[in-house]
Amino acid sequence: MRRILFTILAALGINIGAKSQIEKLDSGLKNTLKITADRFENKNHAFLINLAKDNTVIMQVIHGALIEQTATAENSFNYSINLTFDNEMEKLAKFRTLEVVEDFEYYEFDGIPCFVMNLGNDQEKTQKVLLEILNKVYGFENSDIFEFEIYDQGPLRR
Known about the structure:
Strand order of the largest sheet: 1-7-2-3-4-6-5
Number of helices: 4
CATH topology: Yope Regulator, Chain: A
Structural class: alpha+beta
Distance between the termini: 31 Å
Low-confidence stretches: 1-16
Largest sheet: 7 strands, antiparallel
Order of helices and strands: HEHEEEHEEHE
CATH architecture: 2-Layer Sandwich
Shape: globular
Number of strands: 7
């Protein structure tokens, strides 16, 4: 169920091109967020970023317009973190102990606990929140090697 949003979008045929890179977690996040802004912010294209480790998507960063809870009237470019905890009660419990949990909105998808947060176009804050979650909830180190997949989901209407 890690690919919930990705699977929905792919089923609708909404994937347009992809860029993938393999890097250390901390530098890869920074580079991926910058690449995403460079490619999509001016055109206001929706996007989806998969953060994957050992061929498993751990977490997704998306344009907030792709989820009702983070969509805005303008649908302007933003980084939104989408977390799902399908059969991961221990990780969910760890996540709920973080101070940042208060900034997330809770929703359910087919009974699966999900949390989403819109961080605007703040790359630094997005990276900080992602690293905190990946370190403290999932137990990854900043030096761990991850794959970063960026998908263009097409233009949004303003």
